[in-house]
Amino acid sequence: MSENTVIRARLTALREAMKQAGIDCYMIPTADYHNSEYCAEFFRVREFFSGFTGSAGTLVVTADGAWLWADGRYFIQAQRQIEGTGITLMKMGEPGVPEIRAFLKENMRDDTCFGFDGRCVTALEGRRLSQELSEKRISVRADRDLSEGIWTERPAFPCSKVFVPDEEKYAGRTVAQKLADLRRELAFAGASFFVSSKLDEIMWLFNVRGDDVECNPVAMSNCLISGNDAFLFLQEEAVTEEVRAHLAKYGVKLMNYGSFQAFLRDFDFDGAVAYDPKELSFSLAETLRSAQCREIASPLEKMKAVKNAVEAANARSCYLEDSAMLTKFIYWLKRSAGKIPMTEYTAAMKLDGMRAQISDFMGLSFGTISAYGPNAAMMHYSADEESAAEVLPEGMLLVDSGGQYLRGTTDVTRTMSLGPVTDEMRRAYTLTAVGCLSLQNAVFLHGCTGRNLDILAREPLWRVGIDYKCGTGHGIGSFLNVHEGPQNIRWKHAADEAVMEAGMIVSDEPGVYRENEFGIRIETILLTVERETTPDGTFLAFEPLTFVPLDRELLDPQYLTQEAREQLNRYHAEVYSKLSPMLDEEERAWLEQQTMPL
Hints:
Elements: H1 3-21, E1 25-28, H2 45-50, E2 58-62, E3 66-70, H3 75-82, E4 88-91, H4 100-107, E5 113-115, H5 123-134, E6 139-141, H6 167-171, H7 175-188, E7 193-196, H8 199-206, E8 221-226, E9 230-234, H9 241-249, E10 253-256, H10 260-266, E11 273-275, H11 282-287, E12 293-295, H12 299-305, H13 309-336, H14 344-355, E13 361-364, E14 369-372, E15 396-401, E16 403-405, E17 408-409, E18 412-417, H15 423-440, E19 443-445, H16 450-462, E20 473-475, E21 484-489, E22 505-508, E23 511-514, E24 518-521, E25 524-534, E26 537-544, H17 562-579, H18 585-594
Parallel strand pairs: 1-5, 3-4, 5-6, 7-11, 9-10, 11-12
Antiparallel strand pairs: 1-2, 2-3, 7-8, 8-9, 13-16, 14-15, 15-18, 16-17, 19-26, 20-21, 22-25, 23-24, 25-26
Helix pairs in contact: 13-14, 15-16
């Protein structure tokens, strides 16, 4: 049976379940119970019913239609994967494509019923949906996971052993210090309690890690913090004696993960309880309706994003080793393409194996993207062993990869030439490099957000009518999630823009994507540092953490400004200085050629 036939059969079963439940329209987001970016297999309900494997997207199903909303990273991939399923792709952000709420309001009839699993939708989005649909007397049901009974071979609920990395060596601050900082922030907000179900910030707060989400070192968890107490909810099977002792040292009360909602419902809140409506689920927020609530941006998000001295030093250390290993891979790739059998998949496996040799390697920070030729036009392309394209000694290979280490989380992209390339490829690559270097060398006044900086990366491409359908940069955790907030770099206005602070780590990754032709991305990771304070204010700058050469064969000097040429030469001199002691003689000689001044 073909894949699209399977998906059609699943949608038919879903529609029957909707009919039995009295639900006229059902929404399936890409989410777990914690609003995580990446979901364990147990939670991939949207993928089960749509066939679309991307990490973001929302499926809406009615009795006679189905629609998939996906963002610009996934337009090409999503269109290919849903072809023949009867699902219509809704390209988010494109002209004429409505947002989900507007679509529902326009297309749902009065006095009908809209449903979703309230555990997998945030409080903010759930309330917006409820409020807007109520204008048409559309009722909302948020108590049903309609995949139950249809997804009969559903993977097990994730449950790994929680562990405790050395606090002094890796965390830089104790649980007691972090709790004290959090309580001060809550006092400023006029709150006595704080509820969180966001996995990475819970792991960070309690200085523990897990393995419940692929590539993210987190454990299924929830927490409630008051002025005197801290309750951490974990699955009983995940708790070791090491974890019990660690938490007991700080007076943390360990509770059963499955009891969290009932605990909140029965808890005597004698003061205001704060939570982040962008993160806490609709179901949990509804449980708190009887309490005095304060909806705030999570204080933990910013606290976690600003790396302390220990975290910053560890990031420098692990990024240097990670950069050296990627540089070794590029040398191997350029020597091997066309000489040994190679596919996108085997190239990725080679790099993954090399990265695993680093001493404190704990796994990948995301699945390695190894995309050759036209496949690189799909920003989040994923090659598998059966369908991977052959890598030939021509064109370009884009590799976006990273590792999890006890010292930190890495992310880096380089696009490499493997033989003859076109003039258009060289122009696109060079302009991408100019933008990347321009942002990398930014100096800016404290108070700037990523929106103030985004144009530095895009402007060389915008000048020739080129843009990329994604942000330029995202925050990165410290042995945590490869994507974190609140900082980001993008040009579009957003209500949650965050001021850049010294200590924040952010990616710098402009690119060019030409459907059915090629894709280019260059990603260097930057640490925000304080540069100087003058009578005009405090100025910040970026310190590169990534030290991997740009591809000399893809750089076309005619598109380099004098400033960009100087920036490139300075960066390459630093790459050679830092990496040459870590390479063998042949690799060092090659790197010397790659980093010679232009």
